[in-house]
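Sync notes, pocket subgroup
Present: LS, DG
LS reminded everyone that the earlier model was apo-only. Rerun requested with iron/sulfur cluster included. Inputs:
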Amino acid sequence: MYSVKEIFYTLQGEGINAGRPAVFCRFSGCNLWTGREQDRQNAICSFCDTDFVGTNGSGGGKFATAEKLSQTIADCWPENGGGKKLTVLTGGEPMLQVDAAIIDALHDHDFEIAIETNGTIAVPAAIDWICVSPKAGSDLVQKSGSELKLVYPQTGSNPEQFNQLAFKNLMLQPMDNEHQAANVKAATQYCLEHPHWRLSLQTHKIIGIP
Ligand code: SF4
């Protein structure tokens, strides 16, 4: 059984794949925050901007089998659409639920599979694009992948501590809070001074898509 908050077709907003059409599958639940506002202050991850509680979002629900979930994801892709199909498994923390069955089923539907994870649970090598967004105060288990996307600035998390890990791309993403303008400036300056890091903007928020 898979619990999914929402499933929707959009453009990837962040990271190296920004602008690429993808079906997002947002799994319910996270291991670093309950998702309830009253628990935020004591959560390991306290700056989350995502609603991952329950299964009541658009396209969400409980899926009894990998085939049912993968078929629902496949149905979101435009008919006769060209290009390689991409799905982004996100959350919440998708690795609480992603297993070999859903990976195989999505590959059978000819999807390239990307995952956005906090990196506290090892990701199967069969996932095609691994994006890890580490959170201060949690144990980083997944230390390699396609991109590491660090929300910046983040108390207790310095970009330098990730320089030696085996990620193909290092992305710095300004934290979206009341200091956003200053955060963008700080992240921009950091990338200019440390050119192995690149700036990741949440372009979906800028253009007003989910
Ligand atoms: S790890 Fe990700 S999904 Fe979980 S609370 Fe933090 S930002 Fe939200």
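DG: The chain has one domain: 2-149.
LS: The CA atoms of residues 95 and 105 lie 16 Å apart.
Action: DG to write up.
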